[in-house]
Amino acid sequence: MTLEKNKGEIGSTEPGSTEPGFVPAPDVSSRDAGLRDLGLRDASAEADTSAAPKDADPKDANPGKVPQSVDKASDSESPVLISLDDWNHKCSRSGSVFESFYHAFNGVKVALAQRNLRIHFCATPVVLALAWFLQVEAWGYALLIFSIGLVIVSEFLNTAIEHMVDIQANYRYHLSARYAKDTAAAAVMFSALTAVAVAAFVFVPKIWQLLSR
Question: Which of 4, 19, 155, 162 is labelled catalytic?
């Protein structure tokens, strides 16, 4: 039998001992478990206290402030708060014609991040220069300009649809989102094929005439 001192008293480490003069020793495992539970509760209480705002005003139910999620730098940062007037200004119509043009040119800058649209913009002056060299008639210029505009507008719409689908799908893979993007890309492809057909219709007779001289 092993004896241990416990605050001046002698206790037995054997469970169930009933010898006089001995008291049961405390269960060390249960005592440690209780201390650990107490420590966890204290840590949880401290975390809740630190998470609460120190200077929170219970009368301030909001507002005037809304989260601006589109301007968040990263998920780790807290959302930026802007005034309600600024939020309404961003979501409402443009205040002037100059502001409308500003947003339109900003859309061009955003769309030019797409590689295919940059290719179309670079091909446009080449096509017009070739038309000038081959002395294309006015109706040929009209067809070429119309087809070029059709392709560029299709690219802009495709880019806008891609952004809207990403927002709706929360930037996650979804089969319907894939179908929407593929359909928009198909529209761009057919508009580009139409432009190629128009260019062939306008340029081939001129090139044939030039080579036959």
Answer: 155
